[in-house]
Design goal:
By secondary structure, the chain is an all-alpha fold. The chain has five helices and no strands. The radius of gyration is 53 Å and the shape is rod-shaped.
């Protein structure tokens, strides 16, 4: 293992960066406040801190960033976009190869599903924004309408029964009038005396 990859070097690098930044901050504070150095020294903390920081930034630029992940150990070639990634297998079970095109297709399917979900959420949002404040009053008015309609239907049914009774009475009256007309006609015929 290289020295720069060792945990002790990483700790030392972070320690020096932190101490250098603290010295720069103290130097800037002493300069801004125009304070004298403790113990009457003529050391310029700002110059020392900035020199340390310059050296650290040079070191960081030379070493380069450390990846915080180790996917390349599990999927060799993952950092190469066009590379075919062959995942490690365990127990003889293998998974399909991954490459940039396959990943883009899978992400495209996920994007379509997310767009569908977004449309559904928009519909739900529109329903949420709908004003149902007058719905209770409308339901109450519909209840009143249906009760009045039921009363009218009951009255109509009663009227139909009365109409049937009226029709029956009229038929009976008509029959009585026919009988009375026949009797009256017979009486008139009987009253006519033949002239001799």
């Amino acid at each position: 293992m290289a020295l720069t990859k060792s945990p002790a070097f990483k700790y030392f690098k972070n320690f020096v960066i932190g101490v250098g930044a603290a010295v720069v901050m103290l130097g800037a504070l002493y300069k801004i406040q125009s304070w004298e150095m403790p113990l009457g020294g003529s050391i310029d903390l700002l110059t020392i801190g900035l020199g340390v920081e310059a050296a650290l930034f040079l070191l960081i630029g030379i070493l380069g960033p450390e990846p915080d992940y180790y996917w390349d150990k599990l999927y060799p070639g993952l950092s190469n976009y066009n590379g075919d990634v062959q995942p490690l297998t365990s127990g003889g079970v293998s998974t399909p190869q991954l490459n940039g095109e396959v990943v883009e297709q899978q992400l495209g399917g996920m994007l379509t599903e997310l767009q569908t979900m977004s449309k559904s959420m928009s519909s739900l949002k529109a329903l949420q924004d709908a004003d149902f404040s007058g719905t209770g009053e409308q339901v109450r008015q519909m209840g009143n309408f249906y009760s009045k309609l039921n009363e009218a239907m009951a009255d109509l049914a009663a009227t139909a029964d009365e109409t049937k009774a009226y029709k029956t009475n009229m038929e009976s009256l008509n029959g009585n009038l026919n009988t009375l007309n026949a009797v009256y006609g017979n009486m008139i015929s009987a009253m006519r005396v033949p002239k001799a």
